[in-house]
Every structure is written in C-alpha cells, then in structure tokens.
Amino acid sequence: MSTIAITARLELVRLTLEDAPFILELVNDPSWLRFIGDRGVHTVAQAEAYLQNGPLASYTANGYGLYLVRRQADGACLGMCGLVKRPSLPHPDIGFAYLPQFTGQGYGFEAATAVLHHARHELNLSPILAIVAPDNHRSIRLLEKLGLKFQKRLSLDEGQSEVLLYSS
After folding, report:
1. Which one of 3.30.450.20, 3.40.190.100, 3.30.420.40, 3.40.630.30 gives the CATH number of domain 3-128?
2. For residue 19, what pLDDT is reported?
3. Domain boundaries in the chain?
4. In the sheet where 129-132 sits, what is the strand order?
5. What residues form DSSP beta bridges with 149?
6. Taking the model in full, what pTM does it have?
7. Which of 3, 70, 78, 134 has its CA 20 to 30 A from that of 113?
C-alpha cells in the first residue's frame, strides 16, 4: 500500500487489485452510472481489469492516478479521488466518486484538497482541470469550493455529451 496523503479524517492510498470488490460496488452505484457512465464492470474479475487498465496503468505511465479514499477511524472505503490524464485534455484533471452513504459529510472536499496539494507541491502539476456533467450540481459546488473556475463547455469525444471544463 502506498499512502499519498493523510488528512484529519482520511487516508488516500494507491488502489490495488485487492480493492476490486469495492470498485465493483462503486462503479455500479446509481450516481456513478448517471454522472460518470457505465464502465461495463459487473464482476470482480472485470473490476480487476478496470483497475489494471485504469488507475494501476496510470500510476506507471503518469506517476499519479485515482486513489482509494479510506476513513482513518475505521478503515471504511468511502470512494476514490485523484488525477486522470485524458488524451483529449492538455492537463490532468481531478476526479472523485463516493458511495452515497459517505456524501455530504465533507469527505470529498477533504480528499480533493489533499489531491490538489499533492498535485501542485509534490508532482509540480499546474493547472489542474476538472470535467463535470452540467447537471451534477454537487460536484460543481465542490469544484467551485476548491477554487476551480468554469472555463467552457466541451465534448471530449465525437458524439459524446457536453461537459463543463473547470481549471485551477
């Protein structure tokens, strides 16, 4: 386990294949499906493949990726937060997703603040972008609370729905 950041209540660590059962639950949560999309992950084996081809590959290729957000008090896996390097964007973007029972408690802001600090001060990345569905009001509020500013609407790929682009 590789710890990226420790906050007052949370620990952010690199995901491993052992996290596949949690990832299976997270990527099939209704809010993930609505705002992020169906990744076709319906078994633990598919969750392992998602991890290998996504976060684990990003750690190797970029030195960063999405991290597991775990509560220090009891070790509960709350969600994930981290950085994604998309071919269609010039800079990395911050992404986050949490199980519904852990939203609205400040965990998202706490974890995202730690990720932004890590990106700026340890990885020397700037600016940090964010993309969000126009109707994802909770995530938009979080991005604005983090100090990111709306830049424009864009479509990441041909035929995809428009997203809002934010930048630090």
Report:
1. 3.40.630.30
2. 98
3. 3-128
4. 3-6, 10-14, 66-71, 77-84, 93-98, 129-132, 163-167, 149-154
5. 167
6. 0.95
7. 134
